[in-house]
Write the structure tokens for this entry.
Amino acid sequence: MAAFRVLVASRLAATPAFAPRPGLRLLPLGGWAPSPRAALHASAPRPGARVALVLSGCGVYDGTELHEASAILVHLSRGGAKVQIYAPDVPQMHVVDHAKGQPSEGETRNVLAESARIARGKIADLAQLSAADHDAAIFPGGFGAAKNLSTFAVDGKDCKVDRDVERVLREFHGAGKPIGLCCIAPVLAAKVLRGVEVTVGHEQEEGGKWPHAGTAEVIKALGAKHCVTEVTEAHVDRRNKVVTTPAFMCDTELHLVHDGLGAMVRKVLELAGH
């Protein structure tokens, strides 16, 4: 039997298809296994970043901007992140008929229930979100950020931020974990994290290309620094680990907004160490 094993080993070693490969050793009855030296240098796959995505409803005029949320999820998936979606369990400020662009009188909706449409049902109450369980947090835009996560749409610089939204922003900031925000959502960081640097794009309307450019002045009035960027870019405040991009603050092609969101997600993941 011993002679047979020696014969098999010699013939396999002499065959190109079975020639010894670097880092492998021949088993007694044929086959290959990692050598102790190779095993010493092996490393386990790097786990993906754990990212909390905070939504504000479903629909640009009274909730989360769907294209922004979807693009962010695609970029996070491509970046290998593990995502948990959250939303506050509170009533919307109002409900907008998106076909007419007008509020629907007498209709009420819940922010968590509406956000679950985007999350495909996999969602948790924002009250359960803890920075200790995640490596980063991202807030898409849409008027829900200014209506349901805060009162910015009504009160401007004197706005109030939802209690759990404020808590989450402070927790991640205090833990040195990155926060991404896009479109109108950077006003949340400007209100809560004084002195932070954010962008909502340009500071002039430029013939309607930047229809919400006036938001930049309100951000400055809140004590934050506004940084002019293009729609395809993301601004990184490295001191505060806050990453922002204009998204639909710019009236432009969808793929350019998608590219800017990708830049934001990549920077957030880099700051998270992924």
Observations:
- Confidence is low (pLDDT under 50) at residues 2-23, 37-41.
- The first strand starts at residue 24 and ends at 26.
